[in-house]
Amino acid sequence: MSTLLYTHASFARHEVPPGHVEHPGRYRAVEKALDAEEFSQLQRCMPPRATAEQIERVHPTAFRERIESKIPSSGLAQFDADTFAGPSSLDATLRAAGGAIDAVDALFSGHAKNAFIAARPPGHHAEPDRAMGFCLFNGAAVAALHARAAHGVSRVAVVDFDVHHGNGTEAAFWHDEGAFYASSHEWPQYPGTGRQSDRGAFDNIANAPLERGADGEAFRRAWGENLLPALSEFGPEIIVISAGFDAHSADPLGGLSLIEEDFAWITSEIGAIAKDKAEGRLISILEGGYDLPALASSVSAHVKALMAL
Ligand SMILES: [Zn+2]
After folding, report:
1. Structural domain count of the chain
2. pLDDT tens digits, one per residue of 49-103
3. What is the DSSP pairing of strand 238-243 with strand 282-286?
4. CATH code at position 168
5. Which one of 92, 142, 150, 233 has the fewest beta carbons within 10 angstroms of its own beta carbon?
6. Rounded to the nearest whole angstrom, what is the distance from the C-alpha of residue 117 to the centroid of ligand 1?
């Protein structure tokens, strides 16, 4: 069975102001990297738009409608200091979530092994009722809760190795006994959440803050000793990865020192738990990563590891 790859022109169109770090060139760099011969076995898929019902499993109706009503017909709408939307942004954020949902459906029907959604904008900072940190809707959380609503499973997990803490996913899952969230992230760093002592209402959150400068050894220790055992113990029936690559040593926003092999390693480790607990069901959605060569090579290492599972 194959690994699915979701791409769409809207992911390159999502508009931001000139000079913004989360820009269309990121998507083009990823798309170009995954055009290489070694990725010819990927099954390329078109992401549909998530429906209102699907988005509202995470985001209240009023918030969804507010995002939609603020989308401009030209120019840019601003949601916080660094979160913007243009005419194409609604299509992009709905297809980011929709691609992940389509992948969930494909995995449960037995038609695919795993999937990567090469989307922008990212989603893990989007709280149920707040767009922030470049994120509008939270595609990873939406996909995980879709699996539970549509496929009869009761335990879903999102794991996140972006250099930033996924405050949005944590907020969406905090009071949800059947939803687990694990994150490694630089500390202190934007958005300021993700203390190790923050464990969710049902001990269903696992946070591993890493000091500035931490390298692959510290990263592997945090996952190997803390986050992966917690994930395994939770016993997810599907795992969604919030795959950010801004913990790479070359990243201009992050202060960690990971390399491509670290991203391949964590992908294989998460995949092993997916095989052990979730019949292999594993979906990955792109979050951050702002140095274009490092983003391209890190995504390549990640997707190769997915294909090897
Ligand atoms: Zn990030």
Report:
1. 1
2. 999 999 999 999 999 999 999 999 999 999 999 999 999 999 999 999 999 999 9
3. parallel
4. 3.40.800.20
5. 233
6. 16
